[in-house]
Structure formats: structure tokens, C-alpha cells
Design brief:
This protein has about 375 residues and is α+β, with helices and mostly antiparallel strands. Helices cover about 55% and strands about 15% of the residues. It has a three-stranded antiparallel sheet with strand order 1-2-3, with no helix packed on it. A two-stranded antiparallel sheet has the order 4-5. A hairpin with a 3-residue loop joins strand 4 and strand 5. The chain is elongated and about 85 Å long. The two termini are about 40 Å apart.
Length: about 375
């Protein structure tokens, strides 16, 4: 008995191409559908901009994030101006006059309209290694060798430039999301696909393991880990450890999505044809089953990245995750833990605003990619 090849999208494309009919690849159709989702396109550019800032943090940040100025604690943000006394003078900020309140001993800052501090671009500053390799000392903006400084987002309690620290913190916070999702993606897809394809005891074992991981209370776990981690450990090692632990906790949702989809399609014709033709189990998963759930995986990944970011931020904010001298958005938010600090210096909430923008951008991007990857979308 002669067995005919099952109809596949590749065969349909080949027949259409042979007949002279213009054919769009699945990737092209996905791109066209994605471009119609305007909010997702804007979010994609926001995400790209965030990672560009994180990648070139040394160049974009005007000052060393650890450099402090005892004369400028809690300096308010300096507004950028372009016109001085009715004439266009380029970007500049006004100097600040410092006064100490005799009753509260608190420093107050008032703009000095007679002191104009021009903002220069590509100025020399503290030395660093561009991309960790090339020695450099150029920065995106600064004041060009003057003793004065410009603080567009203000300073913290030690007089450190908040914008520089925010830019450097993006490097850690955003990388936690990517690295953590990579590990959780590998674990979740592997266990979920095996559970959905094999079933039986393997499925039961994976399900019980996922239920156990989800039942572990997160806060007590981190309290125990925070108490157990020696203070003298390298901050980089602690960062990697936290990333791996976040991945070990966050793989369960993706595994359940993959398992449910595999249970649905494992008895469909194209999967059975691949298995009967002698394809190995790994090849069936990689070449036939996973590509059929692209939209599900994309949605799960884009939602998992903000979850990882929020997890690191929350833990660091509570003092259970990353600790100084590591700079992350969660660590920076530790300075805004009480109402008194927020009342005195509301600009300390800038890392929180950055987190909100990042999470919204990832969520909107995930919605757009999910709809674009769905073949049933018009």
C-alpha cells in the first residue's frame, strides 16, 4: 500500500510557488500582523532602547555611580533649559544655592538664575572600559571639565547621581530577566514536553514536582537564604545564585502550558506520521511539536521576563536579594522604603517609574507577538 505524504505548509508553499502564485512565509505574515499592533511596535522600541541603555551604561551615565558628594545630599532634579533671558543658548541648567534650615538642619536648594551651567556632549569623565574591553573616558553628556555637576534626576542621601545609578542598575535588573527566563525556558520546555508526549509516570512525576515547587512559600525561603548567605561572598556570585533560584521557581507555568498543548496535539496526524516514519522523540518535539505552539511559547516568555524582573526587584527592595554594592533597581528603591524619605526626596522613586515602564512594555510586546504568531488571527 502506497503511503502519500501528509499535506504540510511547506508542501503547500512549494505547490503555490510552482504555480506562480506569490507566497508569504509564516515569518513574513507574523511580521505584517505584528506591525498592525501599534502599541506593541512602540513597546518593542521601548524594550530595545532599555537594553541599549543597559549595554552602553558606562558611556550614557555621566558620573561614576559610586562617586558621592557630601555637599549635595538629596539634591533635587535640575530642569534642562534652552532659553536664557529670551535668547537661545542651548541645553543648560541653573546652578543651585545651598542653604541649611536652622531649625531642621536640612539642606535646601534654590536655583541661581545668574549661574548658567551649559551641558556638553561627548565630554571627558571618569575612565571605564567600553563594553568591558576598550579603555575610554568619553560620556554622552556632562559639563565639560567644570567643577559644577548636573543632576537631571537629583541625588541620593550620599550625593550620588541618581541618573547614573539608574542607568547602571538597568544592566543588572534587565539581565536578571533574560538570564532567568533562559534557564526557566530550558527547564520548563524540557519537562513540559516530556510530560505531555510520554505521559504516564513521567507526567505524574513532573506534575507532582511542579506542585511541590509552587507550594513552597517564597518569602520564608528567601528569608532563610538571606540569613544563610555569607556577607563576604562575591556580589556577582550572589547575583548568579539569585538568577538560578528565580529560574528554578519560575519554570512551572511554562511547563504546564507546554504539557497541555502537547497533550492536545500528540495524537494528531502530523505527529503520528513523524513517529511512524522513524523520527526520534527529540526530533518530533523540536521539529514538529514545538513550532506548532510558537504563539504559546512567545506569550509565556514575554510574560515571564517581567515576572523575573519584579521578583528580583521585590526581593532586593526587602533586603533579601541583591545587596550593595551591587546596583539594581530594587536596591535603589531601598532608599524609598519610608514615607519620610519620599516626602523629602520624591525623585528617589525614579527606579519605580522605570520598573513600571519596563513591565508595561514587555506586556504590550507579548500581546502583540502572541497575536501575530496566532495563525487564526486575521
Amino acid at each position: 500500500m502506497k503511503v502519500h505524504d501528509a499535506a504540510t505548509p511547506q508542501n503547500a508553499e512549494s505547490e503555490a510557488a510552482a504555480a506562480g502564485t506569490p507566497v508569504a512565509t509564516p515569518f513574513q505574515m507574523m511580521r505584517w500582523r505584528f506591525r498592525r499592533h501599534r502599541l506593541a511596535v512602540v513597546s518593542l522600541w521601548v524594550v530595545i532602547a532599555l537594553y541599549v541603555v543597559a549595554l552602553f551604561a558606562d558611556f550614557i551615565a555621566p558620573y561614576d555611580p559610586f562617586e558621592h558628594d557630601r555637599r549635595s545630599p538629596f539634591t533635587p532634579p535640575q530642569a534642562i533649559h534652552f532659553f536664557h533671558e529670551g535668547s537661545l543658548t542651548g541645553p543648560f541648567v541653573y546652578g543651585l544655592d545651598r542653604e541649611r534650615d536652622p531649625e531642621t538642619a536640612r539642606l535646601t536648594f534654590t536655583p541661581d538664575r545668574d549661574k548658567v551651567i551649559p551641558i556638553r556632549f561627548f565630554v571627558k569623565g571618569h575612565e571605564y572600559r567600553f563594553l568591558g574591553l576598550i579603555p575610554a573616558d568619553r560620556h554622552l553628556y556632562g559639563v565639560g571639565g567644570q567643577r559644577s555637576k548636573v543632576y537631571i534626576l537629583g541625588t541620593d542621601k550620599l550625593g550620588r547621581d541618581l541618573f547614573s545609578r539608574l542607568v547602571y542598575g538597568a544592566r543588572v535588573t534587565l539581565s536578571v530577566g533574560l538570564v532567568g527566563v533562559f534557564f526557566s525556558f530550558v527547564i520548563g520546555v524540557t519537562l513540559g514536553s516530556l510530560a505531555g508526549l510520554i505521559g504516564g509516570m513521567v507526567d505524574n512525576a513532573v506534575q507532582r514536582l511542579a506542585e511541590f515547587v509552587r507550594s513552597v512559600p517564597t518569602i520564608p525561603l528567601w528569608l532563610g537564604l538571606a540569613a544563610a548567605l555569607p556577607v563576604q561572598w562575591d556580589p556577582v556570585f550572589v547575583y548568579l545564585l539569585i538568577t538560578v533560584i528565580l529560574a528554578l521557581i519560575g519554570w512551572t507555568s511554562l511547563a504546564r502550558v507546554v504539557r497541555g498543548h502537547f497533550l492536545t496535539i500528540r495524537n494528531q496526524d502530523f505527529v503520528l506520521a513523524a513517529r511512524f516514519s522513524g523520527a526520534t522523540r527529540g526530533r518530533v518535539i523540536r521539529r514538529h511539536m514545538l513550532p506548532s505552539m510558537t504563539s504559546y511559547v512567545i506569550a509565556a516568555i514575554t510574560l515571564a521576563i517581567p515576572e523575573m524582573i519584579l521578583g528580583e526587584t521585590a526581593l532586593s527592595f526587602l533586603g533579601l536579594g541583591l545587596r550593595p554594592p551591587v546596583i539594581s533597581w530594587g536596591v535603589l528603591l531601598q532608599d524609598a522604603q519610608n514615607l519620610r524619605s519620599i516626602a523629602l526626596a520624591p525623585w528617589l522613586l525614579a527606579p519605580g517609574a522605570a520598573i513600571v515602564v519596563t513591565i508595561l512594555a514587555f506586556n504590550f510586546l507579548g500581546d502583540g507577538l502572541r497575536d501575530a504568531a496566532d495563525p487564526y488571527q486575521g
